[in-house]
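cache lookup: miss for this entity combination. No prior model stored, computing from scratch. Input as submitted by user K.M.:
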Amino acid sequence: MNSEYSIAVHVLSLLNGGDGPHSSEYLAGSVGVNAVVIRNVTGRLRQAGLLDTRRGVAGAALTRRADQITLLDVYRAVDAPRSTLKMHQKPNPACPVGANIQSVLDEVFTQAQAALEDRLSQTTLADVTAALHDKAS
Amino acid sequence: MNSEYSIAVHVLSLLNGGDGPHSSEYLAGSVGVNAVVIRNVTGRLRQAGLLDTRRGVAGAALTRRADQITLLDVYRAVDAPRSTLKMHQKPNPACPVGANIQSVLDEVFTQAQAALEDRLSQTTLADVTAALHDKAS
DNA sequence: AATCCTGTAATTATTATCATTACAACTGGT
DNA sequence: ACCAGTTGTAATGATAATAATTACAGGATT
């Protein structure tokens, strides 16, 4: 798991609060990463249809209202893993347990991941923005 | 996130099916990792009270019945992260969003993690063993 | 035309993960 | 008492994942 997801939420929060057009350089300054990382993230968000960007012109704009964007939408937009729980890769197929553990764990991990994602779907970007305003006051 | 968690479940499944005493070397052969990795995992499981091991003597024994060990118990026993969702580390404190995003995301991530862990608590080692037997048949 | 910006690929640096080596502490059998 | 085998643990090295950086083509605005 990399930190693209939290970066994406951060970026979308900035765009939502949006005063002026935010260049990738500016966003990078707030997020604390290199501008190229920002552009990769906005690229994925654009591919997912969450924002519009145009080559050559600074700034990005949300395509929907913030209360219509869930944190699960964001999670799926970025390069997030199918499951945040990591499996060991080389169980011994000659052992009855080793031969089947991946399949069994995959089911368990899938269910746990579904529970996590379901919770993410209950929070919207608007909720995040509201919480940010609360903290700032 | 490392793969100690899935390794731990694998090891406990072997111990549960347990015919003879399983040395760390044997367990390593089934799991597909180095024996030292196994000993580190069993060490954590012992510290968490899930199994007994003795220095110098091969084998490990569960301290409770498999239906009394949930996958959440195992998750907490190993060196698993508080949240599987990763936060970016250097948001700019001079920016209103950057100053508060970690706090806001921490709440969201904690809730999502709680949903995941709640799901893990609903599956026991006995369930895993039963599923393994189903697959093997 | 000149300047600024995005999209993207490629490279390097950093960090995290795992394998391996090494060895002290301990056990059980001979 | 000795010895072979094992666990616990630290330390080191190899590999893989992550992020920073460089580079530049494609496009916009003045």
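stored under new cache key. Chain A touches chain B through 54 residues (CB under 8 Å).
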